[in-house]
Amino acid sequence: MDLTTDAIQRIVSGRYIPSPCLRVMNISFIPDSSSQGSQRISCYLSDGDNFFTPCIIPVKSNITLREDSIIILQDYSFYTSPHFGKPIIEVYSYRSFPDVPDTDSVPDIDDNSCVFDSNPVAIISTPERQPSPQGVPLLSQQAIQYLPIGNPIPQISSESPLVSGGLLDLSPRVSRSMTPSKRPAFSQVHFSPASSLLAKRTHIAPERPIPIFNLSFQSSWTIKGRVTVKGALGPLKHGGNWFYFELSDLSGTIKINAFQAETERFFGVIKLGHVYAISNGELKPAKLPFNTTKHLREITLKHYSIIREELDFHDADFPNVPSNFTKISHLRNSPISSVVDVIGVCVFVTLVNKGACRSVLIQDDSSTEIRLSIWNLSPNDFNPPIGSIIVARRARLTQQHCGLILTVAGCATVDVNPDLPEAVRLLDWFNNHGSSTSFTSLSKGFFGEISLINSLPQSLQDDAIIYTNLEVIIISGCGYVYKAHTVCGRRIKIYQRDIPVCESCLDTLPQLSDQLLLTLGISDSSGSVEVSVFTDVALDLLSKTTNDIPNISDASLSLAIEGFIGKTFQLCIKSRMTFFHGEHQLQHSVKYFSEKVALEGPSGLFSF
């Protein structure tokens, strides 16, 4: 008779399996204190792959149970017993197969090791195992311990063993009590599911993964799923770090924790959106409210845990990473302290707070950019390349001297180039349109490390953009107002018969807008250079608005620029190659400015 495959794992996962066929192992007699005089046994039930204890089975006069007997459960339940304080499988009715051969693998139990006091019952605890001929771990004689039930019970004689040759001997006996000195204390009893005990001794990972929903107290297991959530590194009170992630398949999601050495092993391995096969670890009850997966268990990775990234799989077999990204342009009207998920392209990286924090400038297809400052990763652990996709989850929107900043601290996370459809679409858009898009910044006047003018690039590739922070003195300046094409932003020239033509796209019927351009000469100890200041920054510098541009005269503009001569400014310079009138030119333009030092600090960032 074949055992019912996976019956144990499905039963303990809360599913009712009709008529499962299981093997009985490690039989122990449980006397009953009730007036009916019913008798039961405590045992292991195995489906050939996994086993569970304690399992309570009633003794029937017409059925002889042997060690390794095969039975079919007709009526049973899986619940948490108030007596044991643990989940048990209790069998109410069953059928057995009398043609199962006897086994000699079970040692006799003498009277000293199985004599019951006024109210204990023999159960399985922290056993020592000897492999049976069938390859299923068995309990040795020393594995029998005692747990109080609460009512007086009949005394058992020690004249002959309770179990002989694998059979229960239920004949009446006269009792002999165990002395208090020999009786195990209640606090010493530790009831563990059999699979947990086995996992401490053998860590052979099965090749066939099981559904995540079915993971409970298996002896050894492998699950396969996609990482749908990855937490940040968190410090532990006594040193070291920890982190968690969530693994999902179509059956469910489970939380997985890593501490200390396992954090160092696996934090860099686990990538959001990637698929992994994970084998073996410590299964624990889920800790609410910190676990929101709705799974009854969670996993703690151990030294024997194995994680392998899967490259050959069907994408439809695993759920996608949930995403609800907020466009950066929408953050302008979001309440301060809002917690959001954003995705953007990294265009500038710098250090802030005296080198203690890495901050990046990200842009998205809403033609808007914002600073993202990462406080829960060291600068050595987070230094994304220019042009990479950055995903920040649970980032907090804060208002600082330089405008709006997204801070990543506490439970917030940041990922570089995640395997997400949104990341692919955004990178494709940026490669095709990023260089020609005029971005509005929500983080104006932001500065990190200060460089010198002679560090500005002398040449660049066509698609490269470099940002440099300078502290300079303005030594000269000029400016003018002009008409520009609202689509491409280029200046409009008026040809004969008053026909306006765009210098870039040669559109002869362009929509026009008023634009302002300043050219400033700046100097520091390393040299001098001219930089351009385009409309948005120029209006901020002059404290003007777009509606004021038509009223700006050459005289008033010159007078305003003279007021800046000799003053010290901090400037964020954007360097890029431009193509104008058939020539490539290196352009340095002012991205942000400030008349005094503005450094971002961590105060107020950790009020999660």
Automatic annotation (TrEMBL):
Domain Replication factor A C-terminal per the UniProt entry, residue ranges: 479-591
Organism superkingdom: Eukaryota
Keywords, comma-separated and alphabetical: DNA-binding, Metal-binding, Zinc, Zinc-finger
Family label: Belongs to the replication factor A protein 1 family.
Keyword Lyase assigned: no
GO molecular function, one term: zinc ion binding
Protein name stated in the entry: Replication protein A OB domain-containing protein
The keyword Disulfide bond is assigned to this record: no
Span of domain OB: 221-305
Gene3D superfamilies assigned to the protein according to its UniProt record, in alphabetical order: Nucleic acid-binding proteins
InterPro entries the UniProt entry points to: NA-bd_OB-fold (IPR012340), NA-bd_OB_tRNA (IPR004365), Rep_factor-A_C (IPR013955)
